[in-house]
Design goal:
- The protein is of the alpha+beta class.
- The protein contains four helices and 14 strands.
- A twelve-stranded antiparallel β-sheet has the order 4-3-1-14-13-12-11-10-9-8-7-6.
Length: about 270
């Protein structure tokens, strides 16, 4: 999703493409059809982030450790999870933390093993947060101005084929109407995405759904994403991102995870 916005903005900034004014003009018309945060409409906005899967993880940990309340103390900062979008700086995310304190070794057959388990639990929580951040960044950065390194833009009867690189990763997008097919890969990792856009206001398209296939070796992760929107000032910003991920190894499904990321109590400065 984010790559689309990058490549659309980058087309006008690439000297090689300026050699074909007619194609460039058509591409500019295409670019104008996609929604972005108007930097003149806000200075910044903030939203609290609530994630159902993280809520469930912390609740399960607390329930599991409840019988050891006299020796172990669980403290979470889920309420601090938030994002800020600055019209000049971009997106920043304030991540939540999870801490499990050992109050006493009393009753522990192997205190070192308990501490190791605590560290592994905290690391698992942090990985969940990082994965959530990637989803959030992929959606929100799609509405901010970042320019990729374009290698070619081709207009065909079926739509547009755009090749570019970002952060050392090469990608090809095929744009047909309200749908975009994206292929990218690096270091043995293959990423194939199919995105569908719909109007988020009277005349601009924003990401509505996406299916992302990530394959490395025998393992494949398939993530389906659905985005809904809310009005904030004169902006349309995500209200919720619903994800469903299935991980398979050698064709056998091993893990399925559903989550809803909600953006609440949003406030805007203009």
């Amino acid at each position: 999703m984010k790559n689309l916005r990058y490549l659309l903005l980058g087309a006008l900034a690439t000297p090689a493409l300026a050699q074909d004014p007619a194609t460039l003009k058509q591409y500019e018309q295409l670019r104008q059809g996609y929604y972005e945060f108007d930097p003149h409409a806000y200075r910044s906005f903030t939203c609290q982030i609530d994630v159902s899967s993280l809520d469930a993880t912390v609740a399960n940990i607390k329930q599991m450790l409840a019988p050891r309340a006299d020796t172990l103390k669980v403290k979470d900062e889920l309420a601090s999870y938030s994002l800020t979008v600055d019209s000049k700086i971009g997106l920043s995310i304030n991540n939540p933390t999870l801490d499990i304190q050992v109050l006493s070794d009393k009753g522990m057959a192997d205190p070192a093993k308990v501490r190791q388990g605590i560290e592994e639990t905290k690391q698992g929580f942090d990985r969940q947060v990082q994965g959530t951040d990637q989803v959030i960044s992929g959606i929100f950065n799609g509405y901010l101005d970042t320019v990729p390194e374009l290698s070619s833009v081709t207009h065909t009867d079926g739509g547009w084929i755009v090749k570019y690189s970002e952060g050392g990763v090469s990608a090809t997008d095929t744009i047909q109407g309200s749908k975009i097919h994206e292929e990218a890969g690096t270091n043995g990792l293959s990423i194939v995405s199919d995105m569908e856009f719909a109007k988020v206001n009277a005349d601009k398209l924003g990401i509505k759904t996406s299916t992302i296939h990530m394959t490395q070796g025998a393992q494949t992760a398939v993530t389906g994403i659905t985005v809904s929107y809310q009005t904030l000032g004169s902006l349309q910003v995500p209200a919720a991102i619903v994800t469903k991920t299935t991980i398979t190894t050698a064709g056998v499904a091993q893990t399925t995870a559903d989550s809803t990321i909600k953006f609440q109590a949003c406030a805007i400065k203009t």
